[in-house]
Amino acid sequence: MNQNQTTTLVPVILSGGAGTRLWPLSRERMPKQLLPLLSEQSLLQDTLQRAETACATPALLVCNSDHRFQVAEQLRSSGCRAGTILLEPIARNTAPAIAVAAHEALAVHGAGAQLLVLPADHAIVDTQAFVRAVGEAAQLAGHHRAVAFGIRATRPETGFGYLEAGEPIAGFAGACDIAAFVEKPDLALAQAFLAGGRHYWNGGMFLFPAGWLLEQLAVLEPAMASCAEAAWASASRDDDFVRLDAAPFQRSPSKSIDYALMERVDGSAMVTLDAGWDDVGSFTALWQLGRADSDGVVKVGDVLSDGNRDCYLRADHRLVAVLGVQDLIVVETADAVLVAHRDAVQDVKRLVEALRADGRIALLTDPPAAGRC
Question: Which of residues 91 and 18 earns the better pLDDT score?
Answer without folding.
Answer: 91
